[in-house]
Design goal:
heterodimer; A: about 100 residues; mainly alpha; 3 helices; B: about 650 residues; 3-stranded mixed beta sheet; about 75% helix; globular
């Protein structure tokens, strides 16, 4: 049996990779994928701990997270498409017309 | 005490005249009507004054005519504000309204054709109102109202020719110097209220009699106000400059109103001054110094009006001297005779200036006795009265003052007054010699220039004073004639009545009065000194005088210690005006650099903070994410390390 610490380590690596992607990449598509990576690291932990403690709550939460993630990505992609239509170019750092 | 409406009735006509004329000055079709109305108003006030005189005689010598205007209560003390007429007020009122009326009548001729005729008479009426209020005050509050209104009236009239920078400077100077005096005076009144809880003259004087330290402080503070108002040393500097006003205004200021207010208030508060020997001595010293120095300065002036201005300073000095040695009846007597002959002199000077198309420099006159015999006769009468030749008016009052100074034991002050009489004779002989005697002044073609507003305004050319004489209206000659007669007979006529008439005031106030009956030897000494002054003047500035040619050759402003009047102006400029400018410059810089600087720094801080916070909300998503992550990491680190 694979020890729980391995799952935690993998999840951490995935989360950090996702976080780095969000912070460093300027393309919204890559950013969305990086966020997906962070969601999934969270899901991995939920499932791993669920199995560890013999409860199904974590697995249920994992499905819930996937649904929320799908919805988020749908909105995010719609925004990206709209921004692209307006500007012929998509760069997260350029999109600050709503700044204070 | 006798309640009467007459004090108010005296005040109303001049105030009404001022209001009506000033309010509708543009709608008056006829300038003559304005002058007649203004003069009539003062004549009505004079009529009421005569009525009050009769009333006062009728109710008895100890009575006071009184009107209560208002009264109120603060902290259990009852304060009453009103008007009163006793013999002392009466004496002043008769001169204020009587001579004031003559000056109004004269002005109708002198100001004829001036575009601001209405404004002039409104101000002149206002002046009479303010001065009447001042002398009828029964307490310090009413007094201050009259006092400051007189200051404002003089400010308005000195700057009557408002487009002349010199007139503007002169009016401001007069106002500021008087304001300095008023600050002291108000401090004195405040001290009186704080110590005695009353503003009534009588009550203050009563309380001060048993409180020498308080009396000394209050009397000295009030004295500074009186010195400023009466242009005595060392606050006399505004008076020569005040000659920028129209000539009848100078007569008004010097003869009937303004400058005599200081003499009046010292006489009015005499019980308090007598309780304070220091203040009393100060009055006498200030008076003697002003009498002598004013007379000395007058010997070096070239502007005919400035000679007369310094002469006033000197004569008011005599009145202060009289008050200071305890001869207040003599002071009041000299006030009246001085009003006659100084008004005659100023208005006579106005005739000369008018006839010469605005020329005021006595070096450019000469030989006028043949060309203007009437003006010469009347001016000479005024001069003889001023010098104190018997039997002209000034002789009686001045000899009374000198005798009082001797009788009171102030021998040094007596000698100073005697010397001043000599200098008075000297500068009057100079005036007479340069203006009326000798050959007329030859105008060098290059030196010919137009002077004065009348010259410029009427289009007369460079022969200032040597072309045809400007005709003199009857109103001017008539008034000067009346005043000249008063200058001749006024002293002898009033001399027997002054002391008995004023006695009730001083008996009521339990004030000692120095006997003023001059000994024969004192009169002879005075006359000898005057004769010496006249002889010296004749030798210097007579038709063949040794200084005559030299002075007529040098034109321009007088220079030297005497010409600049001991550099008082320069001294004040150095010790007061320049430091004030420096202080205000410093304050301005402090305000701009320090105070504004601090405020700008605070504003900059807020702006920088705002810019910093603004950058955090730049709309750049990745920066938001970084902030978020940093926060999470910090919280995580905190939990990891401390929990």
């Amino acid at each position: 049996m694979v020890p729980i610490s391995a799952y935690v380590a993998l999840a951490s690596v995935l989360f950090i990779l996702g976080g780095a992607g969000v912070l460093l990449r300027r393309s919204p598509l890559v950013t969305l994928m990086s966020i997906e990576l962070m969601w999934n690291s969270a899901n991995l932990l939920l499932v791993a701990f669920s199995r560890q403690f013999g409860s199904h709550d974590g697995q249920v939460f994992a499905f819930l997270v996937m649904v929320v993630a799908a919805a988020e990505v749908a909105i995010g992609l719609a925004l990206v498409v709209l921004v692209f239509r307006r500007r012929e170019r998509v760069d997260l750092d350029d999109v600050h017309t709503l700044s204070g | 005490m006798h309640d009467s409406l007459l004090p108010v009735l005296i005040l109303i006509p001049p105030l009404l005249g001022a209001a009506v004329i000033a309010g509708r000055t543009r709608y008056w079709r006829s300038a003559a009507a304005i002058g007649v109305l203004a003069s009539a108003m003062v004549l009505v006030a004079f009529g009421f004054t005569l009525g009050a005189f009769v009333e006062l005689q009728r109710v008895g010598p100890d009575a006071i005519l009184r009107t209560t205007l208002t009264s109120w209560e603060i902290g259990g003390h009852r304060y009453q504000m009103g008007l009163m007429i006793d013999q002392l007020s009466m004496w002043w009122l008769l001169v204020v309204t009587g001579v004031g009326f003559l000056i109004h009548a004269y002005s109708t001729g002198y100001m004829h054709g001036d575009p601001d005729y209405g404004r002039y008479f409104a101000k002149l009426n206002y002046f009479v109102f303010a001065m009447s209020l001042l002398v009828m005050a029964n307490n310090f509050l009413t007094l201050v109202i009259g006092w400051t209104n007189v200051g404002l009236a003089s400010y308005l009239l000195i700057g009557f020719y408002r487009t002349r920078p010199a007139a503007n400077a002169a009016q401001i100077k007069a106002y500021v110097v008087n304001l300095i005096g008023e600050v002291f005076m108000l401090t004195g009144i405040g001290a009186a209220v704080a110590r005695y809880a009353t503003v009534d003259f009588w009550d203050v004087a009563q309380a001060a009699r048993f409180d020498p330290p308080g009396a000394t402080v209050i009397a000295l503070l009030v004295l500074v106000g009186a010195v400023a108002k009466s242009a005595q040393m060392p606050l006399h500097v505004w008076l020569p400059d005040a000659m920028q006003g129209p000539t009848p205004v100078s007569a008004m200021l010097h003869a009937a109103t303004m400058v005599t207010a200081g003499v009046y208030i010292v006489a009015r508060l005499f019980p308090m001054f007598q309780a304070a020997p220091v203040a009393l001595a100060a009055v006498a010293v200030v008076g003697a110094a002003s009498a002598l120095l004013g007379a000395i300065f007058a010997t070096r002036q070239y502007d005919i009006k400035k000679v007369l201005a310094y002469s006033t300073l000197s004569q008011i000095g005599y009145m202060f001297l009289a008050n200071g040695v305890g001869a207040h009846a003599a002071a009041a007597f000299h006030f009246a005779t001085h009003a006659f002959f100084k008004a005659a002199l100023f208005l006579g000077a106005g005739i000369i200036i008018h006839a010469l198309h605005g020329e005021q420099d006595i070096r450019r006159m000469g030989g006028l006795s043949r060309r203007m015999p009437f003006a010469f006769a009347t001016f000479l009468a005024g001069q003889l009265a001023l010098v104190g030749i018997p039997p002209f008016a000034g002789f009686f009052s001045k000899d009374e003052i000198l005798a009082a100074a001797w009788n009171s034991g102030h021998y040094v002050l007596w000698a100073v007054g005697l010397l001043a009489a000599g200098f008075t004779a000297l500068y009057n002989m100079r005036l007479l010699g340069l203006v009326f005697l000798g050959r007329p002044y030859d105008v060098p073609a290059t030196a010919a220039r137009s002077r004065g507003r009348k010259t410029a305004g009427a289009g007369h050319d460079a022969h200032a004073g040597h072309g045809a004489l400007h005709p003199i209206p009857l109103s001017m000659n008539g008034v000067v004639g009346v005043l000249a007669v008063l200058s001749v007979v006024g002293g002898a006529a009033l001399a027997p009545f002054v002391e008995p008439y004023l006695e009730p005031v001083f008996v009521r106030n339990r004030v000692f009065e120095v006997s003023t009956h001059a000994a024969l030897w004192s009169v002879l000494v005075t006359l000898a000194v005057i004769a010496a002054g006249l002889a010296a003047g004749w030798w210097l500035w007579g038709p063949n005088g040794v200084r005559r040619e030299a002075e007529q050759r040098t034109l321009g402003e007088p220079a030297g210690v005497l010409g600049r009047a001991f550099y008082f102006d320069e001294l004040y400029d150095l010790v007061a005006v320049q430091p004030a400018f420096a202080l205000s410059d410093w304050a301005r810089n402090f305000d701009l650099r320090r105070i504004d600087g601090v405020l700008h720094a605070l504003a900059g801080l807020a702006q920088a903070g705002g810019a910093f916070l603004g950058r955090l909300h730049g709309g750049i998503v990745r920066r938001y994410a970084l902030t978020l992550v940093t926060g999470v990491v910090l919280i995580a680190a905190y939990f990891a390390l401390y929990l």
